[in-house]
Amino acid sequence: MLQLKMKKQEEKLSEKMYDLVIIGGGPAGLTAGIYAGRARLKTLIIEEMIAGGQSATTELLENYPGFKDGVGGVELAMIMEEQAKKFNTEVIYDRVVSASLLGETKEVHLASSTIKAKAVIIASGAVPRKLKADGAEKFHGKGISYCATCDGALFRDKRIVIVGAGNSAIEEGIFMQRFTKDITFVQDLPYLTAEKILQERIKSYPETKFYLGTVIKKVNGSDKVESVTANISKENKEIEIPADGVFVYIGYTPKADFVSKEINLDSQGYIITDENLKTNIDGVFAAGDVRVKEFRQVVTAASDGAIAAHSVEKYLENK
Amino acid sequence: MALLSNEDREYLKGLFTGMKRDVNILLFTTEEKDFCHFCNDIKSILDELKSISDKIQVKEYSFEKNKDEVEKFKVKRGPALVLMADKDLGVKYYGIPAGYEFSSLVEDIVDIGNDVIAIDEGLLETVKSINKPVHIQVFVTHTCPYCPPAVRTAHKFAMANDNIEADMIDSNTFYDYANTYGVQGVPRVVINEKYHFEGALPEEEYLKQILNSLM
Questions:
Q1: CA distance A295 to chain B (A)
Q2: Do B32 and B70 have their domain in common?
Q3: What is the mean pLDDT of chain A?
Q4: Are A145 and B188 in contact (CB under 8 A)?
Q5: Minimal CA–CA distance to A246: which of A82, A74, A128?
Q6: What is this model's ipTM?
């Protein structure tokens, strides 16, 4: 059925000074918006692209509690957005260029304006990690893709290599079956890392091929992708896999480049928080995929959002 | 069945309030059934939009039968939507603006209705100064959240300058056509049939690409 998706932009901001600004409108930010709104904090969510963030490019979420038949990534995000707005949280679509977070009043700088707040939750998420192989850069958008939902339909009956074998990789592999059966997974680890149920499901497609313990070395082609060269680590054997498209799901890198250097990050750039999701800076909290944590899921992001909003409420009460 | 929820209708009502001029939407349907999959849906959407604001006018044509209009508005294939004020602005959609592209449609309507060109002043002068014909084709899929900004920027440029025409093209509906341009990732922006770039660039970079293509 036909889906219509709409960004619902606030016409103008109601406040000069917010109690809370949330950077990022994925599951963490939207949930924080719901809790903060209910705590009657004047709250603004700033989202760069679309409500839901990464989860909105997931066709179906099957493990989010409360939806026994699964729920569309976009659909869930739209419900969360409506829910946050119901409690008077405002949402704008704009890009955060930088943020001055050290002072009592936090300043979040957009391209053409600055928003002030007493507290900030950083829920800006993560972006797909780029494939490091010769030629990968050259073919970006010309056969190498990081978004099967966006580009999958362009590869009808084509030969596809999916790099990675975690949840996202396998889910997208299942999604891609509607366009093509010629799918080969290449994973550096010697085993699949996705949930067992997803492993079972992908194995039910008999034409699917797997190269485990195999590292992509090179993407080959003249003006578009023709094959990938990979190395089977154990045998140190080089192979060439014919491919028209390469979809990459090898994890994520945090999106925290706009935050000031004063905030503590781990070696990979994820924001370090305590268990109440406070960062090392007073009045600044982090929630969801952008922070150091073991398990990055929509449900754990939502949980982070609730905790962070609660911590903000406590912080503002004790000020 | 209504395609828009009550909340969406209310939101749009607010958005369309106070529009200064009529927004004319011309729908060109086609008899090619493979392409017109969603034609009935788009008709219902346009009907709903029309019922929300009396400033929105919809006319339906047949790509096969209404040759005069097809020629006048330079419609290349059906289904197509032409969005215009009282004059043609060079703003088109080939395929249905559903999924994420519904946002583009709504934002285009608001800009045309309010008679504004939502481009940064500094850039607007440069866009207006382009004196050669520019045809921008933005290849998208409905499921691509990164695509609407690329469509909107092209449409805004078209609204600003009569020398610029800008088409959204749904690569799913027009799969073979997209293939002739070797589209393997969206958004893909093709300028004057030969020059192209990938991704949703900020307006300034977008404009630079257009200027480069004209050199």
A1: 25
A2: yes
A3: 94
A4: no
A5: A128
A6: 0.87
